[in-house]
Amino acid sequence: MMKIRIISFTSRGKALARRISSVLKEEGFEAEAAVKNSRDPESLKESLSAWTGRQFSEAQGIIFVGAAGIAVRAVAPFVKSKAEDPAVLAVDEAGRYCIPLLSGHLGGANALACLLGKRLGMEPVLTTATDINGKWAVDVFAAKNGLFIQDLEGAKKISARILGEEPVTLKLQEGNGQVEGELPPEVSLFPGDGKGAGPHIFLGIRKPSGEETILCLIPRRVILGIGCRKGVSEEEIALAVETALEEAGIWPQSVRAAATIRQKEKEPGLVAYCRSRGISLQAYEGEELKSLQGAFTASSFVEQVTGVDNVCERSALLCAGKGGKLILPKRALGPVTVAAAEEKWRVDFD
């Protein structure tokens, strides 16, 4: 659930901020409104700068109800990049205009402005080139479909091609993914005839092989299966995973979660590895893993210790769910075994 924080500076602005908060809650957002006004008994005690800095690390969207200049000065010290910054919008206290200032596409500021425009009668003031020209935006497409943009400069080049009326081709990697909906007129599927350059956009969990592309879009649909000895360190797990993924040509950014057997779910090194990389850790009982049908790389030692002939392959595939596919068989690296499975996934152009 997207966390939105709203701040106002006058009594009129406070009333609008509360209306915005109410509408956003109705739309499924987690929204809170604050006020910074020395004449208001509910005014924030902390400085505007401190409040803004905190929201940059905690919230996915910040709305300033007041002059755009206030918002610009408040956020300036905390701006990092379009890949990291939250959506930032400015709304005049009369509620006439809603202006996305930061993260219009990736952070969803443009979509948020359009939503408020629809619900509260504001006019969204969009300044991003693809929007004002009515063109398909690759970063909006990536954000809506949960895709990692491997190179933001590449995304800019794709937008430049589209704005320049140049053709853009897309190639979907063979595997568990599929394209749904109708492609926009600016994009066509790569013919794959082996002539000339590769596709402009490559969509998949693996790195393209032998094809030059402008941009890779990466679905977060890979599940790591991890087995390890007692006392393994975070660094040892990281080295094993990185080595296995690199050898298999799998983007590390495609990893969504890790899975293991119940006996290992509190192993400090494994817990630290998952936490530091922002991925969830799913643990299964031995009987659940044993019940999974299929051909797995068996180990008598692992079975003696855990009661299951294979932990990493079975846990990855079980976590990947129905239609999941083992894409990286068991790879043993020191005290760690690694496998990976790909979930079924789709991208939608509608």
Describe the structure concisely.
The protein is built from twelve helices and 18 strands. It has helices spanning 11-26, 48-58, 68-75, 109-120, 129-132, 138-144, 152-163, 234-248, 268-276, 286-290, 300-306, 312-320, and strands spanning 3-8, 30-35, 61-65, 87-91, 97-102, 123-124, 147-149, 168-172, 177-180, 187-189, 201-203, 215-219, 222-228, 255-261, 280-284, 325-333, 336-342, 345-348. β5 (97-102), α4 (109-120) and β6 (123-124) form a beta-alpha-beta unit.
Write the layout of secondary structure elements.
Elements: E1 3-8, H1 11-26, E2 30-35, H2 48-58, E3 61-65, H3 68-75, E4 87-91, E5 97-102, H4 109-120, E6 123-124, H5 129-132, H6 138-144, E7 147-149, H7 152-163, E8 168-172, E9 177-180, E10 187-189, E11 201-203, E12 215-219, E13 222-228, H8 234-248, E14 255-261, H9 268-276, E15 280-284, H10 286-290, H11 300-306, H12 312-320, E16 325-333, E17 336-342, E18 345-348
Parallel strand pairs: 1-2, 1-3, 3-4, 5-6, 8-10, 8-11, 9-18, 11-12, 13-14, 14-15
Antiparallel strand pairs: 4-5, 7-12, 13-17, 16-17
Helix pairs in contact: 8-9
What can you tell me about this protein's structure?
The protein is an alpha/beta fold and 350 residues long. It has helices at 11-26, 48-58, 68-75, 109-120, 129-132, 138-144, 152-163, 234-248, 268-276, 286-290, 300-306, 312-320; strands at residues 3-8, 30-35, 61-65, 87-91, 97-102, 123-124, 147-149, 168-172, 177-180, 187-189, 201-203, 215-219, 222-228, 255-261, 280-284, 325-333, 336-342, 345-348. α8 crosses α9. It starts with a strand and ends with a strand. 41% of the residues are buried.
